[in-house]
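Continuing the series of single-chain predictions for the mutant panel. This is the parent chain; the variants come on the following pages.
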Amino acid sequence: MSQMPRQAALPTCPSCAEPLDAGDRFCGACGYDLSAVPPRPDDHPTLTMNGSAQQPPAQAAAGPTGPTVSGTAVPGTGPIGARANGAGFNGVAAAALPPQSASGAPVPPGSGAPVPHASGASGPQGPGVPPPSGPAASPASGDPGATGVSGVSGVRFDRPSEPDEYALQAPDPRVAAEAAVVAETAQVCVACRAGRVDDDGYCENCGHAQPRERDHMELESGPMAAVSDRGLRHHRNEDAFGLGRTALPDGSPALVAIVCDGVSSATRPDDASLAASKTARESLLAALPQGTHPQQAMHEAIVAASYAVNALADEPATAREHAPHQNAPACTLVGSIVTPGLLVVGWVGDSRAYWVPADRSSPPARLTEDDSWAAQMVAAGLMSEAEAYADERAHAITGWLGADAYELEPHTASFKPDRPGVVVVCTDGLWNYAEAAEEMAEVLPPDASARPLHSARVLVGHALDGGGHDNVTVAVVPFPAPAQGAGSA
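Parent structure:
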């Protein structure tokens, strides 16, 4: 409990609580001798370590000069009244006396009457701890203890009153940190730039549907980079890519790039392209460090990717019932391996790879041949290239990865460029707007070897500016200057 301010003069009689005037030596009502109250003794400990009360040595020898009171706390009984040590004032045992106020009137249980403060006590005593015995302190002694309702300085053993308001608890710093992380990582709407995006992918402010993770993807891995975009007409991105770097047994570096295009007429084309690109990349990164020739490693990677796509056809019967008209998951694949002095490409379908030399005075080249209806017509001499690709059946593919493919025929080819350049690996979403090798070289920035990510963005932007009718994915892989000249691409 808090302490009241110290009083300079005695306000009331300690016996009958009658108000007193300044300079009174006796109480005008009961005749109490005010001069008999001893001055406040020196500060001495009043409790031993075991809790028993003891008197200061000087007072123990001389004996008390006034009534000595003591209080005993009884758990569960509420406030404890004053009780005299030894015999009572009228010779009655102290245990037989009921609690009394300073005026001698009985105190009802629970009334909160104060207990006279024992001399030398410096503060209130807790429940169950007896206050020290000794000469009773009078208000004239300037005791800084709490003042009771009757004006007598003393200790209150009743509970303090409940506060009107409780102080708010300080926030848990761990909870505040978690809330800050959630607020920091919350996605903001790309349309209104104000609303938070809910778990369903819609803005809580304007309701705008947010782009999904695969709608636009970018990755820069060392000297190469790749960009994939949903385009302007499709509702999802069914393309996927994979980039990787490893070392050959002789310590020379090897760069791997895989690009896949999901077949839209099949079910789950996005899952097919993702599974194929991931499996082919992992297969190459595992085979090349073991000494497998890059061209053989590419062939094995395409076969492994085919198995991964075929596994997607083992879906529950209920899924097939909901879409009986759709084919098994399928995709195309094109990949490249770049090592010092050797370039290997592999493909199934109509995704392509282009060679663009750093010296633009040298001619670029297309490194792949499409598995498509148009390519077959041109190869058979039945139509010119212009006529074949103008036909509505031009982009019908004749080879793909999937459980319902007619026959898997992985195509691989190796080249030894005699000069530095860039390999462009892309889906038809890009080469439809830059079909010839010369057109691709014209769109590709001159500093593509030094800025592959920027160059990939430029190529995707070219397709989007042209209409973006399909998903667009491209990987830009620089080819270093060979140590010795070899055959030209």
